[in-house]
Each structure stands twice: as structure tokens, then as C-alpha cells.
């Protein structure tokens, strides 16, 4: 049986991910900061088959995806996510979301900052370097030599393995990029972030030094 997927955020990324996860056979729960009842109609129309739930219920899923604007990460409840495997699919977009001291004045990657806030969550960075529209268009069978690859970075090997299995079922090769800090290689404005790559291409890029 596939793990249950909880998605925090019902914007373009969250709903595209929900549809793709449903297509892959997962049970999907979606939550926002609003009560579940307020999201029920939207979820029924935009992501038929998914369940609108409270955020605590989504956080109780086997695998949780953070698909909210990054500047709202402090609205997450660390207690709800304690011990959970959490995919950070968020990006720091200062031109869109505004400048944040949390990320401008911290040498760490955005995912490391989020991990510290969540304290006990098992954070894995991935799904942040594919467009929401591409997610539902670029999937391919595992046997396809042109299958697109997505990078995965995290400090918990078991958490990464779970996430890599999820990505494979979504229709993408998963490439282990290393520790959570290594997620810097696929933050915005990097070669990985701005392109589409097969697994061999992506493996080569994650080990290349970043431009200063």
C-alpha cells in the first residue's frame, strides 16, 4: 500500500502535486490555514479524489509536502510535524514574496532554516525545481531513457528513501544530491533549477561547484 500524502497548501503547486499523486495511486489529503470545510468545494473541483482536511490531519500523513509560499513557513505547527517526513518544495522568491531577513541574513539554505524551525521534522528538499505545470506533463515511465530527474537532499537516509520512492511513482527519476545543505545546488537561479535534466545529467550537475 502506498503511503498517505498530506499536502499543506492548495495553490498551483499543491493542487498540481495532489493530482499527480492521485494519478500515481496515493491517498491525498490537502489542507490550508482555513478550516477544511472552507476548502472542500475547491478540493472537489480542482483535485477530485483528494480529501480536504484540517492541517493537523494532513500533517499526520505518512509523507507531508510543504507547498505554501516560503515566507509563510512560520505559520506551520512544528508539533504537528514532529517526527514526520516532510518534503520542502518551497523556494525563496524575494521579488515576489518580499525580502525576508530569515533568508537574506543566513548563510544556510532555505530548507535548513525551515528544518531548524520545524525542529523535530525529517526535512527533505525536493520538488522545488519543477514547474507546477511541468509536474503533470513531464512524467514518464521508468523505462523511458528521456525520463526527467528530480534532486533530493536530506540528512535522514530513511526519509530520503521514502521521498525518492514517491518521486519515482510520480513519474520521475530521483537523484540523491546529498545532505540537506546540498540542496543549495537546486535553489532558484541554479543550472538545475532553471533546466530539465535526465538522471545522468542531474548527477553531474549536483556535484559541480556553484558559481560564486
TrEMBL record:
Give a yes or no for keyword Iron in this entry. no
InterPro entries membership: NAD(P)-bd_dom_sf (IPR036291), P5C_Rdtase_cat_N (IPR028939), STEAP_metalloreductase (IPR051267)
Molecular functions (GO terms): oxidoreductase activity
Q: Which residues form a coiled coil?
A: none
Cited Gene3D superfamilies: NAD(P)-binding Rossmann-like Domain
Q: Which UniProt keywords apply?
A: Oxidoreductase
Question: Would the keyword Oxidoreductase turn up in this protein's UniProt record?
Answer: yes
The source's domain of life comes to: Bacteria
Q: Which SUPFAM superfamilies match?
A: NAD(P)-binding Rossmann-fold domains
Pyrroline-5-carboxylate reductase catalytic N-terminal domain location is: 4-92
State the protein's name: NADP oxidoreductase
* Annotated source species: Cryobacterium roopkundense
Amino acid at each position: 500500500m502506498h503511503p498517505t500524502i498530506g499536502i499543506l497548501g492548495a495553490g498551483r503547486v499543491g493542487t498540481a502535486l495532489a493530482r499527480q499523486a492521485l494519478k500515481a495511486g496515493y491517498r491525498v489529503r490537502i489542507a490550508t490555514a482555513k478550516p477544511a470545510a472552507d476548502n472542500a468545494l475547491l478540493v472537489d473541483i480542482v483535485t477530485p479524489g483528494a480529501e480536504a482536511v484540517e492541517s493537523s490531519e494532513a500533517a499526520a500523513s505518512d509523507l507531508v509536502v510543504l507547498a505554501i509560499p516560503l515566507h509563510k513557513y512560520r505559520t506551520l505547527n512544528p508539533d504537528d510535524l514532529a517526527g514526520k517526513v516532510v518534503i520542502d518544495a518551497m523556494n525563496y522568491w524575494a521579488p515576489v514574496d518580499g525580502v525576508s531577513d530569515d533568508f537574506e541574513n543566513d548563510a544556510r539554505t532555505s530548507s535548513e532554516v525551515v528544518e531548524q524551525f520545524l525542529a523535530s521534522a525529517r526535512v527533505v528538499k525536493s520538488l522545488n525545481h519543477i514547474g507546477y505545470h511541468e509536474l503533470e506533463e513531464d512524467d514518464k515511465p521508468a523505462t523511458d531513457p528521456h525520463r526527467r530527474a528530480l534532486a533530493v537532499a536530506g540528512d535522514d537516509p530513511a526519509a530520503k528513501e521514502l521521498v525518492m520512492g514517491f518521486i519515482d511513482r510520480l513519474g520521475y527519476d530521483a537523484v540523491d544530491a546529498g545532505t540537506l545543505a546540498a540542496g543549495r545546488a537546486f535553489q532558484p537561479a541554479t543550472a538545475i533549477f532553471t533546466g530539465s535534466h535526465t538522471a545522468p545529467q542531474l548527477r553531474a550537475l549536483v556535484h559541480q561547484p556553484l558559481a560564486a
